[in-house]
Amino acid sequence: MKKRLSSQENGLVRKKSLSRRIRQHWQLYALLLVPIVLTIIYKYIPMYGIQIAFRDYKPSRGFSGSEWVGFEWFERLFTAPNFKRMVKNTVLLSFWSLVCSFPVPIILALAINQLRFKKYKKVVQTVLYAPHFISIMVVCGMLRIFLSPSGGLINLLMDSHIDFLSESGAFRPMYILSGIWQEAGWGSIIYLATLSAVDPALYEAAKIDGASMFQRIRHIDIPQLVPMIVLQLIMSAGSLMNVGFEKVMLLQTELNKATSDVIAVYVYEQGIVNAKYSYSTAVGLFNTVINIILLIAVNKISKKAADVSFV
Amino acid sequence: MKKEKKTGFSDKTSDIILLVFCTVIMLIVAYPLYYVLVASVSDPYDVYAGKTFLLPSQFTLKGYESVFADKRIFSGYLNSIKYTVIGTVFSVVMVYISAYPLSVKSLPGRKWISIFFIITMYFGGGLVPTYLVVKETGLLNNMWALFLPGGVSVANVIIVRNFFETSIPAELKEAAEIDGASQFTTFLKVVIPLSKSIMAVMVVFSMVAFWNDWFTSLIYLSGEQAPLPLVLRNILIRSEISASQSSTISGGYAELNKITEMIKFSSIIVAAAPMLIIYPFVQKYFEKGFLAGAVKG
User: Fold this and answer.
1) The pLDDT of residue B100 is above 90
2) In this complex, is the C-beta atom of B287 within 8 Å of any C-beta atom belonging to chain A?
3) Which of residues 86-105 of B touch A (CB under 8 A)?
């Protein structure tokens, strides 16, 4: 029934001319008008504005009217005193975040999926999703309280007086562990959704064959998840240089800058605080170019390794 | 299927292992929030002496009284409510009016318009060019700077579009159009009423985003327009003492210090509570929404 109707509809549509079809849909185009205009103004014009990375931007002369300076800003970036440190910190922070955070949602999803008590399963999920709904500001506030040298929860539990926020060695673990706390539960949703597509008959058959729960996870659940894991991995690799810079900003102190000084915060400081518009845009563009290179590289590797590609 | 030798634990044992594992994880996730909740109704000196791991000590609501008496926090709260309500209505409307046309398969140019939106998910102008455009369009110190630039959330548009395509029977739309309804009427009278579940998810996503945002407000808005999280930045990150506090509290520095610490705990609860209360109501739709967004993205 459904098929016949839609093929009939296709037949009708094909007979009409394009201009008539466009006129017939004018109301839909009208709906799209505002979103398209907003997207042009606030997404596409800024993309056009990236050219100020190669110009000396003056507000009075606009994006394309400002003087062309070529790669001057990039040269300044490459010779900036903290350049190497910033690149290193950005890459290491992202890399370690990815390595440590990536497997956690998968493990959580595998465990939650096998929980047999439906109500309890829902409670577990509700609790694990909770931190995702808390502002990064509040999370950083909590971190600062918990890590305080005098009376902070962590120091109380360890019976010590370490000032974690002044220790550059503590910055990455602090950033990564709190990130796992906040987002791992939320990240498990996509894997749980993928697992919910497993045919229950498969589990039944495996049970009859005598497979234990861990065998069922290994031979049914994990293969089911592999394509999604690869997809998520590629997407994460593409944003390797996009550190959660709001959080870095809120956890950065003068004393932990040796590890917390990252490119994204520099873009903000130079661009918004110091109003060095062109320079900051150049720094941001440098960051984006590296991201794209990483995305292409990972995509190629995964194409060869798993025959799954994203782009 | 190849029959494997039965190894490992019996089902009952593994059920118990799993149960314990999930419970431990759940406690680890919940404990920091619980600890802050307990600390917010305890004497701060007892908190810092480690007397409040499980239960409050010297129960008091003074922290909450001070939070609501603090002018900065109060105005931040009002600003946050305002931005969250207007921003949510605006962004859900934007998502809907973008997603519906893109779900109509006979719309000429549908593919190109989709690509036009999707490109912005992967490429952007970056912080400064976007800031300059916002500035040029006169939105500095205007709350619309929070709504217009991020107005069309493409990820959400895709989720809703996929929902329209898969969950609203084409027969219903056809029937409405045969009855003489315009596409606009079909959208309002057929599609919207049938999409309440996905709308609930979109409302919650937008609310959370606006309620928790502080960076957009930091770069585009002035001090007195600051939403709650930005106010909390001064309290939690910079440990500033409120001027209105220091002038009204008698009892000297020690008392002031105590109140400052109490405000930290209670303001965390006050800021986090609204969203933590709301999300469980739409939790059951998350999986469906995410899968729709990821698979056909």
Assistant:
1) yes
2) yes
3) 94, 97-98, 100-102, 104
Asked if residues A105 and A191 have their Cβ atoms less than 8 Å apart, the reply is yes
The interface residues of chain B toward chain A in range 229-258, judged by CB-CB distance below 8 A, are: 229-230, 232-233, 235-237
pTM tops 0.95: no
Alpha carbon of B248: minimum distance to chain A alpha carbons (Å)? 25
- How far apart CA B117 and CA A169 sit, in angstroms, is 42
* Pairwise CB contact (< 8 Å): A190 & B219: no
Which phi and psi (to 5°) does residue B38 adopt? -65, -45
Using a CB–CB cutoff of 8 Å, tell me whether A244 touches chain B: no
Angle, alpha carbons A111-A117-A122 (nearest 5°)? 75
A292 interfacial to chain B (CB closer than 8 Å):
no
- Between CA A121 and CA A119 the distance in angstroms is 5
CB contact under 8 A, B268 and A141: yes
DSSP string, B113-124: HHHHHHHHHH--
| pLDDT single digits (tens) B153-191 | 998 999 899 889 888 888 888 888 888 888 889 899 899
Please report, as a single letter, which amino acid is at residue B55. L
> What mean pLDDT, rounded, does chain A reach?
88
Could you tell me the domains of chain B?
6-60 (no CATH), 69-225+280-295 (1.10.3720.10)
- CA B47 to chain centroid, in Å, comes to 29
- Report the residue of chain B nearest A158, measured CA to CA: B50
Q: Do A138 and B229 touch (CB under 8 A)?
A: yes
Q: CB of B30 within 8 Å of any CB in chain A?
A: yes
**Predicted-complex ipTM score:** 0.87
d(CA B148, CA B65): 36
Domains along chain A with CATH numbers: 2-70 (no CATH), 74-306 (1.10.3720.10)
The β-bridge partners of A67 are A56
Residue of B nearest to A157 (CA): B50
Q: Which helix (H) or strand (E) element contains residue A55? A: strand A55-56
pLDDT digits (tens, 9 = 90+) for B226-273: 999 999 998 888 876 655 555 555 566 777 788 888 889 999 999 999
Q: Exposed (0-12), middle (13-18) or buried (19+): which is B169, by Cβ within 10 Å?
A: exposed
Q: Extract the tokens encoding B257.
A: 């210090």
